[in-house]
Prior knowledge:
The structure holds 2 protein chains of 2 kinds.
Chain A (H helix, E strand, L loop, with lengths): L3 E4 L2 E5 L4 E7 L3 E9 L5 E7 L2 E5 L2 E6 L4 E6 L8 E11 L1 E6 L3 E6 L1
Parallel strand pairs in A: 2-11
Antiparallel strand pairs in A: 1-3, 3-8, 4-5, 4-9, 6-7, 7-8, 9-10, 9-11
Chain B lengths: L4 E3 L2 E4 L5 E6 L6 E8 L3 E9 L2 E5 L6 E5 L5 E5 L8 E8 L11 E2 L3 E5 L1
Parallel strand pairs in B: 2-11
Antiparallel strand pairs in B: 1-3, 3-8, 4-5, 4-9, 5-6, 7-8, 9-10, 9-11
Amino acid sequence: KNEVEQSPQNLTAQEGEFITINCSYSVGISALHWLQQHPGGGIVSLFMLSSGKKKHGRLIATINIQEKHSSLHITASHPRDSAVYICAVHIIQGAQKLVFGQGTRLTINP
Amino acid sequence: KAGVTQTPRYLIKTRGQQVTLSCSPISGHRSVSWYQQTPGQGLQFLFEYFSETQRNKGNFPGRFSGRQFSNSRSEMNVSTLELGDSALYLCASSLAEGATGLGEQFFGPGTRLTVL
């Protein structure tokens, strides 16, 4: 079983819909990252959070440490939101490392 | 501020050769991490350098190595290339200081390595 699981793997929606992407992890973490990757490979950090909730524009990220679960929400989705969204957890087990989920491919149709 | 830059952007090598990739972090960032992305394994953490020292390491064989210079620029080297090393190699820099860990990652555009 992967340490980080994302769902769904693929998501297609219409412009304007409310989007939720989920991330569950099975290990103790110090922080969780949400990343966005567009075709061509460039990765942008959207959020890094260790508790509660963060909001940036139409994006909202929440984390529940006790339940080992995080969600990324996109309100009023737009075709330019089409990308792969990746959850990564910051693990400290002696050394520190980031462990990544497999990504969620989001397509927003106009 | 200029973003993270990586050179070269594309590279083709043959099995058995070695390769060196370069990463220049955002000015002021002292931590540089390297990642490998493949269709099969997704994104995987290779290692992190801070103040010229490898501070954290993922589960990759010793053929993968790196170093960091006093200006925080970093290089990654892969020796005795295998077909499975074909991947997008990304570096990321962060402000992470001391024991606070990896911090928010600012990614470069990546180097796409093809091994024939």
